[in-house]
Design goal:
With 138 residues, the chain is an alpha+beta fold. It contains two helices and eight strands; from the N terminus they run ββββββββαα. Helix content is 27%, strand content 46%. It starts with a strand and ends in a 6-residue tail after the last helix.
Length: 138
Amino acid sequence: MADTVAFELVTPARLVLSQAVEMVVVPGGEGDFGVLPGHAPLISTVRPGVVDIHNGGKITQRIFIAGGFAEVGEDRCTVLAEEAMAVEDIDRNKAEARVEAARAALEKAQEGIDRTEAGHELSAAEAMLAAAEGGPRH
């Protein structure tokens, strides 16, 4: 068995990252999950949050994602994210403005799809702000 996992992070716009990692921790829809070599096959939704990439026994990269899906195999993990950016690239002021705009949109939204989309945007904006403020590390 290999000692790394092939990790890919993809958005609709581009391939964000493709590299071998010791472990990756993904913000799954039902809770965070870590992927190590030999992981059981899994498909999961991904909630807005931070993906932590581990190499050399420590977190070497933190990437904010705004939700999506993850597919895990024995020696690979692919995350298909709606949006992704390195945590250190998040502009805190822009993240705060995004939260305020999302709150306003949610207040105006009617029932149904509009309200669901506004709620998702608020979750993504709040997760982005938490990441910018140095949210929880794994």
